[in-house]
Structures are given as structure tokens and as C-alpha cells.
Write a structure and sequence with these properties.
Helix content: 40-55%
CATH class: Alpha Beta
Order of helices and strands: HHEEHEHHEHEHEEHEHEH
Number of domains: 1
Bound molecules: zinc ion
């Protein structure tokens, strides 16, 4: 039933109530816009999307793990080429697979916080948004002996509370300049073509060694050898993102 009908048919005072509901809804939309979209608009000023040019370095970053099948296979592949990378881990998966989590760090890779449960920050209350980051950090800190200094928000989505938590914990927020696949799957050949076509000095390459998208780990593992070849043939060196960013300087 439309609001106009309720206003005409209701008892005296109903029209006023309907107006109050509309005002409250309007105020809610304004508050949410500031909380979510406003914070999102400030993200480029505080997050890294790429590293500096001039050193022919790129960073490989792997999200959403650890995965008990794919991550160990990926670690073997990276070890065979003596490449170190950055893994943005989901806390609840790290808690389920602590041995794989430790194996990542023991192999010399960098570990970052990808939140506790990989929720969309635009749909979270301030308390939950903050907890997603602090619990993720605590789980990784408990397993690895020190909490990560890097943070990657799921899908690059933040709100005012998550940004405040990042500031409070002194985390460095890292996004990406190239993705092997976005919200839709790409075949290994298409992933390779896309990353190769967009490869640039200082690139932060976003890859996924866990689902996420169904089948993402298998597609990634099929892509990786040729992708590492392409990076090498272009005379780039892959380093962990913390090294790429030389983290004493500020975001740009
Ligand atoms: Zn993710």
C-alpha cells in the first residue's frame, strides 16, 4: 500500500507520523552516505594502489587464503623461482588452517590482514566493521607471533569505522593496480593477457589463491607459470608489497 493512501485513510495524526518516518529515512540515508560512501571517497588519499616507478619492481599479492590445497601448491611454485610475495589472509580461514598460515610466513612471504570474515563494510555497523579488522589482526598475531602491519579491505570497500580502526592500529592500507580477475571469472589465458597488457613499473597485482569466485585457485595456478615468465621477460622483479612501497614514505 502506498504512503499517500495510508495518510488519507488513517486516523488524525497519521500524516504527521508518515512525515516523521520519511524524515527519519532521509536522515538515515544521509548518515549512511557519510559513513560508507564518504569514507570510500577518502580511501584514495590513504591507501596505496601502486608503488614507485624507476626500480622495475612489481608486487604479487594473493588474497582470501589460506587454502589447504592451493596455497601449498602456490608456495612450491614461488619457492622454485625464489620469489617472495604478500598474502592477505582472512582470519577465520587462518584459524582453520594455522599450519598453512605458518608455512606462508616461514617461506619468507609477507602476511597482511584481509579481515576476520571478509564482509562488505558498507553493510556493517561501526562495531562490527572495527571487529572485522581487530579480530583478523589478533588471529594472525596469535599464529605468527606478531600482528600484520598491512591491511587490504575486502573488495576495496571501507566505511568510516574501518578507516578509524586502521588509523588506530597504524595499519598500511594496500589496494592494487591490476587484478587477474574481478567479480567475474577469467580463463587463465585471459588472466595472463590482462595482467601482461597492464603490467607497469610499480604494479601491485591482485591475485586470489582461494575461493572467492568458484574455481579461482585452479585458474590462478594454471596462470602463474606464464605470468611469472611474463614478469621476468619484461625485466621486472617481484617483491613483497612492503618492499615495493618502501614503507617509510607516504601514500601516493
Ligand atoms: Zn578478498
Amino acid at each position: 500500500m502506498g504512503e499517500g493512501v495510508a495518510e488519507e485513510a488513517g486516523p488524525p495524526g497519521t500524516g504527521l507520523t508518515v512525515h516523521r518516518v520519511w524524515w527519519a529515512a532521509g536522515a538515515g540515508v544521509v548518515a549512511w552516505t557519510a559513513y560508507a560512501w564518504g569514507a570510500q571517497c577518502t580511501l584514495p588519499a590513504v591507501a596505496w594502489r601502486r608503488g614507485p616507478r624507476g626500480r622495475r619492481r612489481v608486487a604479487l599479492t594473493f588474497d582470501d587464503g589460506p587454502d589447504p590445497e592451493a596455497t601449498p601448491r602456490l608456495l612450491r611454485l614461488l619457492a622454485a623461482r625464489d620469489i617472495r610475495a604478500t598474502f592477505f589472509l582472512i582470519g577465520e580461514r587462518a584459524a582453520r588452517y594455522p599450519d598453512v598460515t605458518r608455512a606462508i610466513a616461514d617461506a619468507g612471504h609477507e602476511v597482511g590482514n584481509h579481515t576476520w570474515r571478509h564482509r562488505n563494510a558498507w553493510l556493517l555497523t561501526p562495531a562490527t566493521a572495527s571487529r572485522e579488522i581487530t579480530v583478523g589482526a589478533r588471529i594472525l598475531g596469535d599464529i605468527l607471533g606478531q600482528p600484520p602491519r598491512l591491511f587490504r579491505p575486502p573488495w576495496g570497500i571501507v566505511n568510516a569505522a574501518s578507516l578509524a580502526t586502521v588509523r588506530r592500529l597504524g595499519l598500511v592500507t594496500v589496494l592494487w593496480s591490476i587484478q587477474h580477475e574481478g567479480l567475474r571469472p577469467r580463463t587463465p589465458a585471459a588472466q595472463l593477457r590482462h595482467v601482461s597488457d597492464h603490467l607497469h613499473d610499480g604494479a601491485i597485482i591482485d591475485l586470489h589463491d582461494a575461493p572467492g569466485l568458484p574455481g579461482a585457485p585452479d585458474r590462478l595456478l594454471a596462470t602463474m607459470p606464464a605470468l611469472l615468465d611474463a614478469i621476468e621477460h619484461r625485466d621486472y622483479t617481484a617483491v613483497p608489497v612492503g618492499e615495493l612501497l618502501e614503507l617509510s614514505s607516504s601514500p601516493g
